[in-house]
Amino acid sequence: MAAPIPPVLAEAPARLTWQRLRHNKALLAGGAILLLIILVALLAPWLSPHDPYFQDLTHRTAPPVWYDKGTWLHPLGTDQLGRDYMSRLFYGARISLLIGASVALISGLIGTALGMAAGYFGGRIDMVVSFLVTTRLSMPVILVALATVAIVGGSLWVVIMVLGLLKWDRFAVVMRSATQQVRSLEYVSAAQAAGASTWRIVRSEVLPNVVPHLIVIATLEAASAILLEAALSFLGLGVQPPLPSWGLMISEAKAYMFFSFWLIAIPGSALALLIFAINLAGDGLHQWLTPEDKA
Amino acid sequence: MLAFMIRRLGLAVLVALTVSILAFLLLHLSGDPAVALAGEGARQADIDMIRKAYGLDRPIVVQYADWLWNILNGHFGTSVYFKTDAGPLIFSKLQTTLVLGLAALGVALLISIPLGVLAALYKGSLADRLCLAVAVLGQALPNFFFALLLIMLFSITWRVLPVSGSGTWQHFVMPAIALGYYVAPAFMRLIRAGMIEVLGADYIRTARAKGLPAGKVIFKHALRNAIVPVVALAAVQLGYLLGGSVVIETIFALDGLGYLAYQSITFKDYPVMQLIVLLLSVLYVLLTLAADVANAWLDPRIRVS
Amino acid sequence: MSVSDIVLDVQDLRVDIDTPRGPVHAVRGVSFQVRRGETLCLVGESGCGKSMTSLAIMGLLPRAARRGTTRLAVLGEDLSRAGRRRINTLRGNKMAMIFQEPMTALNPAYNIGEQLAEHYRHHRRASAAQARERAVELLEKVGIASAGQRLGQYPHQLSGGLRQRVMIAMALMCGPELLIADEPSTALDVTIQAQILRLLADLQAELGIAMVLITHDLGVVARIARQVAVMYAGQIVEQGPVAELFAAPRHPYTEGLLACIPVPGRTPPGTPLGTIPGVVPALTGELRGCAFHDRCRHAQPLCRQEVPVHQAPPGRQWRCIREAT
Fold it and tell me: pLDDT tens across C161-182, in order?
């Protein structure tokens, strides 16, 4: 027997009107920039003027085209090994986006499962999950990540796994409270009274209402993961050369930064732009999904 | 109040123990410590000898219990790389990191309090939006990149601040900025939200009705009430700063806990690594406890009753 | 009665509040005077503009509100053009205000002594010891025992009645000559209400303060005031000495109000209490003529145009076409 359509659920989607979306500048701007970066990353093989790994030793640390000695052969210059910077920049976007998405996915799955279990069942399960969260929060993430990479060896996938297994705490906390709120609403009791199974309730009543929160947290965690990978690679314990991770590019270039400032400025600005876009879109998303907030 | 604190301390101990177990497992299961200790190119005989010498052939539970027992008795082990006692080594570096962490927190508050108050006072205006924009931009800049930019500007171009070392207070200026700016936006949003709520309160109207100058109304009356969650956040963020300073310390060659952690990781100095993780988790839990205590103490309704 | 006796002189006070639907004309041309040692009651139902009037006088209007006035003089000084600095010098000093909700009007983070002393120290440049002495003096004057110990207490440790007494003491710290009290007893228990009102009356008699008391309760008016101004829809519709106004109201709204409450000794037992049919009009857009005309028994077409203000000595005014009931 199906549960009656709860009036609250029918009301909620009405708030997500297209009109509010149109006026949400943060989401539109952030989303646009993000989309651009994604496109560049996807189309990198076609957009890049050169092979990002090819070392043109005759054109080492060539400046970008807006400098005196710059040429259009290498529009964003080359690094200390003569590799074209524009190509490396475009391919580097792939790495950052891959990290962000994968870590958000993995940590999202873990955190959501834990958080929803804690919020829905309460009691002992809640206590255990809260303890796990506290324990995780008291671990210095970057040190644990560094240590793991040092022992296991650095690579893109190791970084993704480590970060994914560490960064689920915010998902757990937010999903827990969101689930608690939803659980206390009447239509969940109605579904329970109608005899629906736990999994069915979770899937059809609880999940749709917590998904908005989930997406907002996912954007924040993706941005944070990208920054963490950049920091790890910067320290040499993340993605390994010759991969064009933006953090690694900055690390490799830091000895040359005084004479060839663009070597750190370009990947650094790219990182900042990507994070900015993600945060902006996340903020906009948050505003769009939770109307009339005090913020 | 006392029962609350005892319960929280108990939780702290439990958490610290769990973290230490996890760290122990991580180090010992994902690689062979004996191999690491023996170094590159060691012969099998050397590795076996090391394994026996360090008791690495015993079951892991025994190894952990042994380690824990030593810690509780004040024997913190010996650094494999530095060849000295791990305990004094770590505590000497802790001082530098604490100074850095507090300085970074200071920088964060120095930025966020004025901006947060400003944004709240002129809510909805251009100033408010600018403050929020600064917040969003600040969080987009990777801290190591920002650190390099600071070095380019202050050390290389203007030559007013030293790049590396930890001798004088000037050595801490750039690192504190590079570490602190990243947590400033969180404070700023909290202060802004808190101030907006408090400024609408009746007692603010009373304060204005008494003819008090605007500054007194804003800072003595409003901010005092809005700042309570900020103190709690500050304690928690200090924990994060202490644990997350490794990149900054490495760039600026500050001889602190983060840099020591980096070295111990690089040189597979397991005893030191283990101890650092334990120390940081204990500090973190104590700081969150301090945050809760501060929360309670700052509200006279809880404190005086 | 000389002109210098006039402590508060309000002429044609207007307050408009900006809302998304357009400006709301909360106060529409209110004028009155209060003399030294005199209590004027502003009476009216919720939304008539009496609180806005008091906030406008003190310069404490919310940000969305705009004030206009021909003259707003306190102790002879026109404040309508005065700068913020000047107003701050007078607030808490020469003119003071107490509010309706004692629960929330005190800062929970500071103790009573601090909140009593701070503006006294600011306005009088007094030392901590002097302020403390003055605070104890006033706490005793408002009837709080063991005043010295109270200074170290926090607002949440006091009852509502005590808090309101503290508010009164706080208002009197710098010896103001004008006290505005916005429904000071409304939020208190009935038994405490009488005490607070008695306290205010005694203090006024002793200190010779000019007081403006805002209330919706005609009983309060009868008990404490000498002059009364009845407000309706942002305007004063009738004002004058209390006894006369109660005995012979001239404005239909005042009549209606008085018919609503039973007066012991006057209202015959068993008579049904009166009601005023209709609702208060919205105060947006153009408002012409009498705001009460759609609820008035005696309404005529002329009431939609200009409405004259009749005056009859001593100090009686009413805003109606009719000369006498």
Answer: 899 999 999 999 999 999 999 9
- H or E element: which one contains C277? none
Q: Which of C107, C151, C173 should be substituted to probe chain B, the one whose Cβ sees the most B Cβ atoms within 10 Å?
A: C107
Dihedral Cα C15, C16, C19, C21, nearest 10 deg: 140
Tell me if A150 and B280 make a contact (CB, 8 A cut-off).
no
CB-count burial class (<10 Å; 0-12, 13-18, 19+) for B90 = buried
Which residue, chain included where needed, has tokens 């004479």?
A259
Predicted ipTM of the assembly: 0.87
Contact C161, C196 (CB under 8 A): yes
Q: Are C201 and C225 in contact, with CB atoms under 8 Å apart?
A: no
Q: Are B200 and B122 in contact (CB under 8 A)?
A: no
CA distance B99 to B168: 12
What is the per-residue pLDDT across A68-89, written as a single tens digit (0 to 9) for each? 888 888 888 888 888 888 999 9
Q: Which position has the token pair 């210098």?
A: C4
Report residue B162 as tokens: 């030293």
CATH topology assigned to domain C1-83+215-306+320-325: Rossmann fold (3.40.50)
Kindly report the nearest CA distance between residue B305 and chain C, in angstroms.
Answer: 9
- Domains of chain A: which residue ranges? 24-50+62-293
Helix (H), strand (E) at residue B115 = helix B86-121
CA dihedral defined by B274, B275, B278, B280, rounded to 10 degrees?
-120
In angstroms, how far is CA A73 from the centroid of its own chain?
A: 33
Q: Is C272 exposed, middle or buried (0-12, 13-18, 19+ CB in 10 A)?
A: exposed
* pLDDT of amino acid C171: 94
Spatial contact of C253 and C276, defined as CB atoms under 8 Å apart: yes
Number of H helices and number of E strands within chain A?
A: 14, 0
Residue that has been written with the tokens 């900025």 in this structure: B177
How far is the C-alpha of A29 from the C-alpha of C161, rounded, in Å?
55
Query: CB of C165 within 8 Å of any CB in chain B?
Result: no
Whether the CB-CB separation of A280 and A30 falls below 8 Å is answered with yes
Cβ contacts of B69 within 8 Å, gap of 6 or more: none
Nearest chain B alpha carbon to C121 = B212
CA C198 to chain centre: 16
Find which of A133, A135, A232, A273 to mutate to test the B interface (most B CBs within 10 Å of its CB): A135
B285 contacts A138? CB cut-off 8 A: yes
* Smallest CA–CA distance from B33 into chain A, residue: A151
How does pLDDT run across B40-92, given as a tens digit for each residue?
677 788 778 877 777 777 777 888 888 888 888 888 877 777 878 888 888 88
- Which pair of tokens denotes residue B135? 């917040």
| Record: fold of A24-50+62-293 | MetI-like fold (1.10.3720)
Residues with Cβ within 8 Å of B7's Cβ and at least 6 positions away in sequence, in order, are none
pLDDT tens-digit series, residues C94-135: 999 999 888 899 999 999 999 999 999 999 999 999 999 999
Residue with tokens 């808090």: C163
Contact (CB, 8 A) for B175 and B99: no
Q: At residue A274, what is the residue type? A: L
DSSP C22: -
- How far the first Cα of chain B sits from its last, in Å, is 11
Best of B121, B199, B203, B231 to mutate (most C CBs within 10 Å, chain C): B203
